[in-house]
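User: Structure please.
Assistant: Input sequence and predicted structure:
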Amino acid sequence: MTVSRAVPNIRTDRPDETRDFFVELLGFEVAMDIGWVVTVASPTNPSVQVNIIDDDMSAPGISVGVADVDAVHARAVEQGLEIAYPLRDEEWGVRRFMLREPSGTIVNVVSHRSD
C-alpha cells in the first residue's frame, strides 16, 4: 500500500483566524478552499499540509492519502473496523471513507480521483 501523505485536521469555530495564523505567521499558502474546509500547504514542500475544518462539520482527526482507497476500505471491512463514513466519491474530486482507529480517532482515508 502506498501512503502519499498524512494531514492533521484542525476543527475550529474560528476558521478564518486559524487560516490567517498559518498563512501570515508560518508562511503557508492556501491550496484549497471549498468553504467548510481550507487546506494550507508549505510553498516549498506542498506535501506539508494542514486542513482547517469548520466546527459545524463532523471532522476526522487526520486525513491519510493513499494510492488505492478501495483496497484500504476492503481491508478495513475485512478486519471488522468501524466505518464512520461510507466509501464514496465526493464532488471536489476525491474518493474517501472514514473509519475509527483503535484509540477512537476518526481517520479520513482518501484518494484523488483521476477522472
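The two ends are 21 Å apart (CA to CA).
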